[in-house]
Amino acid sequence: MGKVFDPSLILEFIPTLVKYLGVTLEILVASIFLGTIIGIAAAIPKLFHIPIVKQLVTIYISFIRGTPIIIQLFLVFYGLPAVLSIINIDISRMDALYFVVITYSLSNGAIFAEIFRGAISAVEFGQTEAAYSIGMTPFQNFTRIVFPQAIRVAFPNIANTVIGSLKDTSLAFTIGVMDMMGRGETIIAATAHALEVYIALSVVYYGVVLILEKGFKVFEKYANRYQGTDTSVA
Amino acid sequence: MVIDIPFIWVAFKEIAKAIPLTLMLAVIPVVIGFFIGLAVTLIREYKVKGLYSIANGYVSFFRGTPAIMHIMLIYFGIPMVLDSMINSLNLPFETNKIPIYLYVIFALSLTAGSYLSEIIRSGISSVAKGQMEAAYSIGMSTPQAMGRILLPQALAKSIPNFTNLSVGFLHTTSIAFLVSQKELTGMANIVASSNLKFLESFIAAGLIYWGISIIMEGIYYLVEKRVQQYSKGGVGSLARD
């Protein structure tokens, strides 16, 4: 199994892999951004109890939460071209990166929908009533009263989803995307130093996660600035 | 390309044969991980000297890297360590005889342990402090107070998180196909490439995962109901999982 373990190679591989961190972060940022939009769109029918659409959204969320991301990835990769070929659109030559972004956006969208719905229903209805009683419009009520309180509840979950999503991007290489993991696989194929590559990859992923966690902590403090010392959101 | 709907059923029957291995890979790591998580939580709660920083590092690292890394590191790393040990001791044993699923179980147990330790910790911190004080005041020892008062309540409160984690681990087993395990995804891959019907096979695999996830959630729902019902009387029983 490979060649003799050589720790110095780990340091040598890290710069090569970091060059491909951009692709990984590109997938992450695009899928979080699109996922947020899908999440909002999917949360609205559930919050306002719109019939039929609400049931469809429930099935969508259940399916995403009930299947592994890798299966979703394969379904989009093989399914989307098949579906679009019915209406004569040929996307079978499209860059695999787009399929990855579509899959992760759909996946994050379902998770975000649940988070948003939970966070908005966690804000007491009395808040909305109070806002209306002092003459706010529904839009003002949402942006000034409900949203700031909901984001405080939702934020830890959003942060977890972002970090989980970053780790999930490591599966994109299975459909041939050249992200950090994909580059790692090519290094293994070329040098047969698998363990060193995986250690180097772990170091990079861990570093990014640590930076993200630090950033989220700062924002969480900011979102909780009116909460006094007890910040637990039970 | 047209979707061959009857083939989905053919693939479904073929892929369903992989359910036992998948469940094994999903359940055993969560069970082992539960004990790792409990041990790590106790070390972190009682700030055991020396082990404390190791436990912190373990949780932070395993939560900060993808599970695929853990599988790959164990899968490539352990044989290397074992081989050098065997060579220096001249033992009559070959590492390539170890079945791959043992590496997967070992790696996923470590992953599960790190996630479970955070779940158990949040469960413990949700139990009111007065409970421990009350247990001490009637003369219970720390292990008694832990085992009879604190943990039953903490674990009961953690059940929703256990549900998410168990379903999550069912999905995590799908990456075991990368180390050529014939679990659901691996099987789907084989059926797909031998029949050149990729979409149909993965639809079938998706339906199986979906079904198992829904059944798992149902079982946990029943457990939760029972545990909650028990704790109404103020006694609480250990969550059986």
From TrEMBL, chain A:
<feature type="transmembrane region" description="Helical">
    <location>
        <begin position="187"/>
        <end position="212"/>
    </location>
</feature>
<protein>
    <submittedName>
        <fullName>Amino acid ABC transporter permease</fullName>
    </submittedName>
</protein>
<keyword id="KW-0812">Transmembrane</keyword>
<feature type="transmembrane region" description="Helical">
    <location>
        <begin position="20"/>
        <end position="44"/>
    </location>
</feature>
<comment type="similarity">
    <text>Belongs to the binding-protein-dependent transport system permease family.</text>
</comment>
<feature type="transmembrane region" description="Helical">
    <location>
        <begin position="56"/>
        <end position="84"/>
    </location>
</feature>
<dbReference type="GO" id="GO:0022857">
    <property type="term" value="F:transmembrane transporter activity"/>
</dbReference>
<dbReference type="GO" id="GO:0006865">
    <property type="term" value="P:amino acid transport"/>
</dbReference>
<dbReference type="InterPro" id="IPR043429">
    <property type="entry name" value="ArtM/GltK/GlnP/TcyL/YhdX-like"/>
</dbReference>
<feature type="domain" description="ABC transmembrane type-1">
    <location>
        <begin position="21"/>
        <end position="216"/>
    </location>
</feature>
<keyword id="KW-0813">Transport</keyword>
<keyword id="KW-1003">Cell membrane</keyword>
<feature type="transmembrane region" description="Helical">
    <location>
        <begin position="96"/>
        <end position="116"/>
    </location>
</feature>
<dbReference type="GO" id="GO:0043190">
    <property type="term" value="C:ATP-binding cassette (ABC) transporter complex"/>
</dbReference>
<dbReference type="InterPro" id="IPR010065">
    <property type="entry name" value="AA_ABC_transptr_permease_3TM"/>
</dbReference>
<dbReference type="InterPro" id="IPR035906">
    <property type="entry name" value="MetI-like_sf"/>
</dbReference>
<keyword id="KW-0029">Amino-acid transport</keyword>
<keyword id="KW-1133">Transmembrane helix</keyword>
<dbReference type="InterPro" id="IPR000515">
    <property type="entry name" value="MetI-like"/>
</dbReference>
<keyword id="KW-0472">Membrane</keyword>
<dbReference type="Pfam" id="PF00528">
    <property type="entry name" value="BPD_transp_1"/>
</dbReference>
TrEMBL record, chain B:
<keyword id="KW-0813">Transport</keyword>
<dbReference type="GO" id="GO:0006865">
    <property type="term" value="P:amino acid transport"/>
</dbReference>
<comment type="similarity">
    <text>Belongs to the binding-protein-dependent transport system permease family.</text>
</comment>
<feature type="transmembrane region" description="Helical">
    <location>
        <begin position="98"/>
        <end position="116"/>
    </location>
</feature>
<dbReference type="Pfam" id="PF00528">
    <property type="entry name" value="BPD_transp_1"/>
</dbReference>
<feature type="domain" description="ABC transmembrane type-1">
    <location>
        <begin position="19"/>
        <end position="220"/>
    </location>
</feature>
<dbReference type="GO" id="GO:0043190">
    <property type="term" value="C:ATP-binding cassette (ABC) transporter complex"/>
</dbReference>
<keyword id="KW-0472">Membrane</keyword>
<dbReference type="GO" id="GO:0022857">
    <property type="term" value="F:transmembrane transporter activity"/>
</dbReference>
<feature type="transmembrane region" description="Helical">
    <location>
        <begin position="201"/>
        <end position="223"/>
    </location>
</feature>
<protein>
    <submittedName>
        <fullName>Amino acid ABC transporter permease</fullName>
    </submittedName>
</protein>
<keyword id="KW-0812">Transmembrane</keyword>
<keyword id="KW-1003">Cell membrane</keyword>
<keyword id="KW-1133">Transmembrane helix</keyword>
<dbReference type="InterPro" id="IPR000515">
    <property type="entry name" value="MetI-like"/>
</dbReference>
<dbReference type="InterPro" id="IPR043429">
    <property type="entry name" value="ArtM/GltK/GlnP/TcyL/YhdX-like"/>
</dbReference>
<dbReference type="InterPro" id="IPR010065">
    <property type="entry name" value="AA_ABC_transptr_permease_3TM"/>
</dbReference>
<feature type="transmembrane region" description="Helical">
    <location>
        <begin position="18"/>
        <end position="43"/>
    </location>
</feature>
<dbReference type="InterPro" id="IPR035906">
    <property type="entry name" value="MetI-like_sf"/>
</dbReference>
